[in-house]
Amino acid sequence: MSGRPTLAFDEFGRPFIIIKDQSTKKRLHGIEVHKSHILAGRTLADVLKTSLGPNGMDKMLVSPDGDITITNDGATILQQMDVEHQIAKLLVELSKSQDDEIGDGTTSVVVFAGALLEQAEQLLDRGIHPIRVADGYEIAAHLALQRLDDISEDFPVNSEDLEPLVRTAMTTLGSKIINRCQRKMAEIAVDAVMSVADMSRKDVDFELIKVTSKVGGRLEDTALVKGVVVDKDMSHPQMPKSIRDAKIAILTCPFEPPKPKTKYGLQISSVEDYKKLREYEKEKFTEMVKQVKDTGANLAICQWGFDDEANHLLLTNELPAVRWVGGPEIELIAIATGGRIVPRFSELTTEKLGKAGVVRELSFGTTKDRMLVIEECHNTRAVTIFIRGGNKMIVEEAKRSIHDALCVIRNLVRDSRIVYGGGAADIACSLAVAAEADKISTIEQYAMRAFADALESIPLSLAENSGLRPIETVADIKAQQILEDNPRLGVDCMGKGTNDMKVQNVIETLIGKRQQISLATQLVKMILKIDDIRSPGGDDYEF
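Request: output the structure for the sequence above.
Response:
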């Protein structure tokens, strides 16, 4: 390999190492490194800034295969962007971390991180050491989190009164493409979470919520099914389309004669041998169907396929069947119906059957597409959100939006404390950090003021995206917050005539906001501590 070091000896026998290809390597160090990193972070944040808030713009992303995605979800935009710069990749991972942990605020966290890097550049230009900037950011983040705790309010999470939760979900969905069905989608998300929530443990099992979709119909046709929707139909067109009081055999073994696991050859030398083999196969099929029927099952759901002969035999014996059902669907059906997944026909018993009130086949318009709906299940906690939409892009964006709403409701079940949105919490934290910075005599005070300015990036972007004058709007809200001592005042993006976010019902979860500040600060601190880069080749490190 050309870049491998070579051991050599001089005329006195002393060893030394020759490192080849050093001229082709690229090195950045000192202030150049910080400038490169800050430029990458700012560029990425500027891309997402215009997507923030209820009036944020959508992005159209075209993949190399020509697939089109239209979204304003920060995590989705960043994942589908072709990012080369290593620090920009860290920001993509930052957004993904926010999405995995909280499910919402993926755009805000990157915009805030970009603002922190932008403020850090001004401090570095003034000769302040990066470590002192990082330390100042750490102190400011701690103060901001304390302020969030102080201004947070307890939110009622009550299965009897779901209206407050619906309003919170509507805040999340307000910035999405599907906001014309905002209320209906919010109600579906709340009903789904509350159906599977364990209020005693304050936990929500997302495994019990399946989100499935079918292109066609209107967005308003989206529904919550208290059961399981499977994108399959009955294996034979003459099988019944609806089964009441279904007793379901859930099988992971195929309807076919047993075969050796190793390679084998079977030679048929006469017509009699062929007939014997055919009779053997038929006998085995009949035995399998009888084993299923003897347990009292009136529906077989099989993970594997079966041929036309087995299919005809099932129809003749009046045993409706569904084939090629995927592993995740099989597991969800088993959970919902209270059945057991059976790997061998010999192990099938009456106790292992799943139970459902009705299993019916849905058809869609003039197409031949059909889906199975399993309702009135033994375990009522398993639900499916069935999304409809005019085209694939709308359906996919609706899925992402519903996921965000589900995550927000889950977060409220886990921790019922909230802060108010519209930049109100950010401005309140900014004022608190700026006030504390005046009490500190060390050089970290400059970094703390920079942190306070960076916190204003969210309300500034909200105001700009809403067609308001950003600086004037945020300055007025800051003055009003100080005058009235009211941390609920934010940017009136929707032009409702009041800046009080409590009146407008613009709500954010406390843990989501805390996570934004914590994650962005940690990442920026890590970036500021990098002062030397060695990369192979000339331009591999370009953004």
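The chain is about 45% helix and 15% strand.
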